[in-house]
């Protein structure tokens, strides 16, 4: 199921934006003329053999060691492109929406996104973005809020 269909089925208000293709979340922020702190990017990790979706601002990176400690994993690594292609068959590679619940994986959200009023993210494709209220995102995704990112300089 595509993210737009899912949001419509859940009766969630969202704004769909079409734009020139952007292949990373920082470029999406620039294309949409918003801060990288306002664009949510999903980063998929494998911790002790289980996949998790980490959602953090576009201008940040996952602090792997901090996250490993917070989820009490023995080992933690980023998912490979091969794994991503199989985990998200209905998405263009790198345009996955931050909805782990749709892909049977827990969603971990960095606390730097938590106070935002809205969330913007890729909509399964590199030329589409969705903006929706954060309260609706919390309601349907139910992310676990942790502190695991650091800002890129």
Describe the structure.
There is one protein chain. With 153 residues, the chain is an alpha+beta fold. The protein has one domain: Alpha-Beta Complex (YbaK protein), CATH 3.90.960.10. It has five helices and ten strands; from the N terminus they run αβαβββαβαβββαββ. It has helices spanning 3-9, 25-32, 64-70, 81-87, 134-141, and strands at 14-18, 40-47, 50-57, 60-62, 76-78, 107-110, 118-122, 128-133, 144-146, 149-151. The strands form three sheets. Strands 5-2-3-6-9 form a five-stranded mixed β-sheet, covered by helices on one side. Strands 1-8-7 form a three-stranded antiparallel β-sheet. Strands 4-10 form a two-stranded antiparallel ribbon. Strand 7 and strand 8 form a beta hairpin. The longest helix is centred in the N-terminal third of the chain and has 8 residues, at 25-32. The chain is globular. The mean pLDDT is 91.
């Amino acid at each position: 199921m595509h993210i737009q269909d899912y949001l419509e089925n859940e009766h969630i208000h969202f704004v769909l934006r079409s734009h020139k293709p952007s292949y990373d979340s920082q470029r999406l922020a620039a294309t949409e003329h918003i801060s990288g702190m306002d664009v949510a990017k999903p980063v998929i990790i494998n911790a002790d053999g289980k996949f998790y979706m980490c959602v953090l601002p576009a201008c940040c990176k996952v602090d792997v060691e901090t996250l490993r400690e917070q989820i009490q994993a023995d080992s933690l690594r980023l998912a490979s492109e091969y794994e991503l292609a199989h985990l998200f068959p209905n998405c263009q590679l790198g345009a996955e929406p931050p909805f782990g619940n749709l892909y049977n994986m827990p969603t971990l959200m960095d606390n730097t996104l938590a106070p935002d009023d809205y969330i913007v993210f890729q909509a399964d494709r590199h030329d589409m973005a969705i903006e929706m209220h954060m309260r609706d995102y919390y309601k349907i995704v139910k992310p676990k809020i942790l502190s695991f990112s650091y800002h890129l300089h």
